[in-house]
Amino acid sequence: MTGTTQAARHDWNLTPAEAIQLQRELAGRVRMDRLLRPPETVAGLDVAFGPGRSHVYAVVAVYRLTPLELIDRSVAVLPVTFPYVPGLLSFREAPALLAALEQLAVRPDCLLVDGHGYAHPRRFGLACHLGVLLEMPSVGCAKSVLVGQYEEPTPERGEWTPLRDGDEVVGAAVRTRSGVRPVFVSVGHLVDLASAIQITLAASSGKYRIPEPLREADRLSRMLAREGDPRLAQRYSRVVRSRTSRRHGPAPDYRSDVTTTARGTSARRRPARRKSKR
DNA sequence: GCGACAG
DNA sequence: ATCTTGTCGC
Predict the structure, then answer these.
(1) What total number of domains does chain A contain?
(2) Is A68 exposed, middle or buried (0-12, 13-18, 19+ CB in 10 A)?
């Protein structure tokens, strides 16, 4: 899949009302019925915001599952152009994450996203959005619930209970580490819930609540965001990538099909019209 | 009208 | 998410 999907591209310069309509349309493309052969590599995706919340620092951390180890990383920084609105996270974070994915040296078998997938008001959270645009398997892994209710799973790592929104099972509360709060897993795209849970557990060491790929993406994005220098952050990603790819040999090229650029310096025609609260 | 509300 | 000090526990 190297820039061959035409349908998987759209404008990000939308109003909240337009964004909601787009989600309703794209939600029809989510596929959670396909069986997934066990992935060998999983990419953790997360973002952090720089000083004044002016820029989004996106990081992708690719891990091999056995053994669980970091094999590649990439960074992208873009100006913030959309407010934080529960249910519309994609329009604030996805452009930067897609830009980071484009700079990756290796193509991961699956995406593990910091946020929900199907467990969303319109069944189209950030993980679904990325999976559908890239046409690749993705899993949503959030630290708190957006929609739905669940019963506490027993304390042992590996245990889980369904997350239900009305009669529908939209995800699962998964215990990635014994004795701590569960994480909330849901289908992103091209995986079923059982696989999504397995992938989340496989990416978790058991020493921390957050799966390793997401911990690393979170750690690096926050570190770079604190520096507050977009240009330096992007340069840093190149250094890291050449370093890791040198040790593991040449990696297959990665190309996404999205129109976003890695350097996003051009001003949007329709900038964020209000600041997020809280 | 009053909460709830991924990051 | 980000802003922040100390504190409880392995």
Answers:
(1) 1
(2) middle
